[in-house]
Automatic annotation (TrEMBL):
Protein name as it appears in the record: Protein translocase subunit SecE
CC terms in the record's Gene Ontology section: endomembrane system; plasma membrane
GO biological process terms held by the UniProt record: intracellular protein transmembrane transport; protein secretion; protein targeting
Main location: membrane
Length: 57
């Protein structure tokens, strides 16, 4: 691992990066929130199925 070479590539990426617009940020936040809610819902369904089935935990 060459530290100077890695640092220059990181600096180059940071220079190219820009702050997202409010529309872009809110769209990404909405999609991420929907994904988190979906995973939670699937987890709840698995919990409910395991609870109500005979021999469930």
């Amino acid at each position: 691992m060459e530290v100077p070479k890695d640092l220059t590539s990181y600096v180059r990426v940071l220079k190219l990066a820009s702050t997202p617009s409010w529309e872009e940020f809110s769209q990404v936040a909405l999609i991420a929130g929907a994904g988190i809610a979906f995973v939670g819902f699937v987890g709840f369904l698995i919990f409910a199925i395991m609870t109500f089935l005979p021999g469930g935990v």
